[in-house]
Amino acid sequence: MQNTNIYLPHIAKVVEIKEETQDVKSFRFEFVELKLRENFTWKAGQFLILSIFGVGEAVFTFANPQTRKEFVECSIRKVGLVTEAIHELEVGDTVGIRGPYGNWFPFEEFGSKNLLFVAGGIGIAALRSSIEYSMDTRNDYGKITILYGARSPMDICYKDKIVEWQNSDNVEVALTVDRGNDEWKHRVGLIPTILKEMNPAAENTVAIICGPPIMIKFTLKALSELGFTNDNIVTTLEMKMKCGLGKCGRCNIGNIYVCKDGPVFSYEQIEGLPDEY
Ligand code: FES
Fold first, then answer.
1. Is the CB of 246 within 6 Å of ligand 1?
2. Ligand 1 mean position to 171 CA, how many Å?
3. 53 & 123 share domain
4. How many folded domains does the chain comprise?
5. In terms of domains, do 92 and 128 share one?
6. Which helix (H) or strand (E) holds 73?
7. Ligand 1 within 6 A of CB of 179
8. pTM of the full predicted structure?
9. What positions does the entry give for [2Fe-2S] cluster binding (predicted)?
10. How far does the centroid of ligand 1 lie from the alpha carbon of residue 211, in Å?
């Protein structure tokens, strides 16, 4: 449900805050207007614009899927003025939310394929809604594989969610960090290297990836070596966005606007664009 004035945010309250890591917090927001709370919906991969009154606004993806929509949830890394202000929020504080905007991961086209999620760093926040959506519509897909990498064990988000995912039927979860510690029982190494070690079958599998540009670049290379074709690789470029509305020009790459044409793209669509994503 969208406002008729595209710049007018819906008012929402912070109802829960969870500290994921030293610089990432997950926030649950609840709309003040009861009707909106019931009717507001989105699709995994879409984004919203969160306003902190008197400070500014920023683009975030929905961290929870449309199948778990009692709240709007975002996981936010502290990286600048607006996100620092968001990290100062307390339960009961008021924010503005606009959206949903953008396209979504085309689950309807994935059919009964296997799903391979590859997330680097805070990219896991953009993929969480899709991971949970696929869990909630589990019978529609084959095997689900999740490869999630972070800098260190301290930087792993969603530790409780990961346990849930690991305990789900026909789901394989692989965790890796660049640098481990004595307690770390999972893998150590860069995502593209671990991906190649895992050697997932490319046949009948869609790879859904999100992370920092350098990780995406080498993950694409690894996927190609594993036999994945460009039409079976999907990514989200949400990190490029600022206004989210086609006004600021910040998200322009070659002939596409991430906010208007995406943020979700198959690799086939973005292959050959300037190397900026
Ligand atoms: S984010 Fe401003 S034009 Fe796309």
1. yes
2. 36
3. no
4. 2
5. no
6. strand 72-77
7. no
8. 0.92
9. 243, 248, 251, 259
10. 19
Q: Is 244 in the pocket of ligand 1 (CB under 6 A)?
A: yes
* Same-domain pairing of 70 and 144: no
Ligand 1 center to residue 273 CA distance, Å?
17
Are 117 and 224 in a shared domain? Answer: yes
| 5 Cβ neighbours under 8 A, 6+ residues apart | none
Closest protein CA for atom 3 of ligand 1:
246
Q: Specify whether 188 is located in the same domain as 140.
A: yes
In a shared domain, residues 130 and 150: yes
Q: Which residues contact 42 (CB under 8 A, 6 or more apart)?
A: 48, 62, 66, 69, 99, 100, 104
Q: Which atom of ligand 1 is nearest to the CA of 246?
A: 3
Reading the block at residue 148, the tokens are 């999630």
Task: Walk along the chain (277 residues) and give the pLDDT tens digit of each residue.
Answer: 544 566 789 999 999 999 999 999 999 999 999 999 999 999 999 999 999 999 999 999 999 999 999 999 999 999 989 999 999 999 999 999 999 999 999 999 998 899 999 999 999 999 999 999 999 998 889 999 999 999 999 999 999 999 999 999 889 999 999 999 999 999 999 999 999 999 999 999 999 999 998 899 899 999 999 999 999 999 998 767 878 888 888 888 888 889 889 999 998 888 877 665 5
Q: How far from chain centre, in Å, is Cα 257? A: 18
